Amino acid sequence: MERGTLERGAAERILQRLDWQVVRRLDGLLQGDYRSLFYGYGVDFADLREYQPEDDVRYIDWNVTARMDAPYVRKYVEDREITAWFLLDLSPSVDFGAAKTLKRTVLIDFVTTLTRLLTRHGNRVGAVFYDSKVERTVPAGGGQLQVLRLVNDLLKQPKLARAPFTNLTPLLEHGLHTLRRRSLVFVVSDFISEPGWERPLSMLKQRHDVLTIRLWDPREMELPDVGLVIMEDAETGEQLYVDTHDKKFRQRYQAAAQEREAGLSQSFKRAGVDALALSTEEDLVRAIVRFATLRQRKK
Predict the structure, then answer these.
(1) Using one digit for the tens of pLDDT, what is the confidence trace for 124-156?
(2) Is there a domain that residue 249 lies in?
């Protein structure tokens, strides 16, 4: 049997599994209303309501405000048609995790679920693959065949055993320079990267609705006490023997991880983006519902 046939079968099995285990549950929990996750960009006037803190002052209706002696804002019906792009970090560090659930596995499940939800509602999706450089672009398209094509391409993407330390700036700049129409942009990465990506991410946010999905594994935060182990840098291949029985070493490791987490939180805040931390051990449905709730509150 040809390799392409096998891969198409694998993509179909992934989609069927997620339709059953994730999408159906999301339909029940969100009651089919995905507006908290996906906004359109139309400007059709819908209604007026009293101004609330954090509302955009550009939408204040000054004539109504003068008559009512209180500020009122215009509400708009958003265009249902969305073009969504997934900027995907497929560098070696995403191949970290437990044997059955690597960060790459979580990435594929997340992308499959979101593209399924989007295309099911008539939207178009595309993707940009990055490993040590911008590798390829999957043009935006709609329908289930587009979802299967994207998943199939992800499964075919070679895994790099070694690569220069990841620099996400080229991926974000690629999106900045090539995505012309205002879009919904998902940046999916573990954000283990050279510094400097905050600025292009912030510039991307000024042109598009940008959501960052930060992949992580609990073992990156805290080492288990399992004795002597070999730790290897997934990107450079550098190896180091460490004794995890050493309580002080585990404490230093945890402190460094917490410092890294605090730095990432500040970076996302400076860039002005919503960030979803997606663990290899977290239920995908719960993570997406949590993110939908955060988006709805901000909206």
Answers:
(1) 999 999 988 888 999 999 999 999 999 999 999
(2) no
